[in-house]
Amino acid sequence: MINRILLTQLKQWAKEDDRKPLVLRGARQVGKTTLVNDFASEFDVYLKLNLDIPSECRLFEEFEEVHTLVDAIYILNSQQKKDGSTLLFIDEIQNSAKAVAMLRYFYEEFKWLHVITAGSLLESLLDRNISFPVGRVEYMAIHPCSFIEFLNGIGESFDQNLIESLSVVGVHGRIMQHFKNFVVIGGMPAVIKKFAERRDVLACDKIYDSLIAAYSDDVEKYAHNTTMMQIVRFLITEGWRYAGSPISFERFGGTNYRSREVGEAFRLLEKTMLLELVYPTTSTHLPLLASKTRKPKLIWFDTGIVNYVAGVRKEVFSATDIQDVWRGSIAEQIVAQELISLETRVTKHRQYWVRAKDQSSAEIDFIIEYQGRAIPIEVKSGHNAKLKSLHLFMDQAPHDIAVRVWSQPLSVNIVRTQQGKEFRLINVPFYYVCVLEKVLDKIINNK
User: All domains of the chain, ordered by start, with CATH?
Assistant: First the structure.
């Protein structure tokens, strides 16, 4: 069993006075159902519905009044009402528009009932044939496992604790090898479980194949016409090879597809949380305003699938430095995946930085918000003086903090730009990205 970090957020949600039904959003097979089943151990009564089962889906057709519906759910689960906490989990809720509509009545008339819903195709259907009660539900994003969760899943709890306590001293090489394994196989729970059992990357191939086949089979449900179906299918089968790179929609991947159609297809897949389009900003301070007229960077939800489809697993595994693989794209992809894994807000998106000046090639891999600052993150090795884009950013930034992600141990340098501004460059090993805020707290605030 993988102890997911989201369990902590679920426990906090359960304690809220004005708690609303919770909608879990995430790609297929990222562990939504398993997470809720693990969370259910916190409750005295666990009621579960799977709306893929016709008889359970029909409950919402047969009982339109919420009180009689709740009674029917208890009977279906062979449970009796009793004092104590109760969790109701409605899985595959996208199969019933009436079940979605009923969430408002759970909120208004059954506040004592803890209600969680999920659905494997929910994200692609939100704007089409179901509509969640505005203001009466809340959302939580679930992503593939982070590196910390990966360590937990393969039984390396000692090294997991070292990372969480920022105490990696003397074992940097060992943990970097764990991280390289994580980069190779990714964060999908089923893949991690298989790797933990066999310690063999090739043993995971059938799982990757089944995942890709499932996403491809979903195409008809994502797309609304034949052309869009073809484009989405192409993106699912070929788009992984462009991970970590800025992309153009026009004639993407050497096709004849036009910009408008490809953009729509990418946004459909983004809604399913299979990928994220990371747009640039030209700002060095908050708020960070995305420039949607520039090229977005393509980040897929799982690096393991990227490596499998692109056929670069051997290259990743044998590389001395992750940043040497695939022109640095895999390094950016995995850092983005780690940053995304920290975020439970559905509406939050990552950004990278480009210089506003015309004909400028200055670019920084990611920008994050931290304590009122726009913090630049470069995923690069090399001499500090050669980080030219970072120097340009810091000359304009109203603070003195920058982050470099690399394969070396944690360190801090005082760097001076060509214009004479001094800033602190926090050199963060890849394995600390999943605890980046702790690292910043420790160094910036001396915690």
Answer: 6-141 (3.40.50.300), 147-267+298-347 (no CATH), 352-444 (no CATH)
Q: How many CB atoms lie within 10 A of CB 252?
A: 23
Distance CA 163, CA 166 (A): 5
Query: pTM of the prediction?
Result: 0.93
CA atoms within 13 Å, Cβ hemisphere of 286: 9
The region, left, alpha or beta by phi > 0 then psi within -120 to 50, assigned to residue 186 is left
Residue 253's CB is within 10 A of a number of other CB atoms, namely: 16
- What residue ranges in 288-349 does DSSP mark as E strands? 297-300
Distance CA 225, CA 85 (A): 46
CA atoms of 154 and 150, how far apart (whole Å): 6
**Beta carbons of 130 and 103 less than 8 angstroms apart:** no
Asked whether the beta carbons of 39 and 15 are under 8 A apart, the reply is no
Continuous segment of H or E residues that includes residue 181: helix 172-185
Q: In what order do the strands lie in the sheet with 351-354?
A: 297-300, 275-281, 351-354, 363-370, 373-379, 401-406, 422-429, 411-416
Q: What's the per-residue H, E or C state across 389-400?
A: HHHHHHHHCCCC
Tens-place pLDDT, residues 221-241:
778 889 999 999 999 999 999
Maximum Cα–Cα distance for the chain, whole Å?
Answer: 73
Tell me if 302 sits within 8 A of 187, measured CB to CB: yes
| pLDDT digits 0-9 by tens, 300-314 | 999 999 999 988 898
Q: What confidence tens digit (pLDDT) does each residue in 87-113 have?
A: 999 999 988 989 999 999 999 999 999
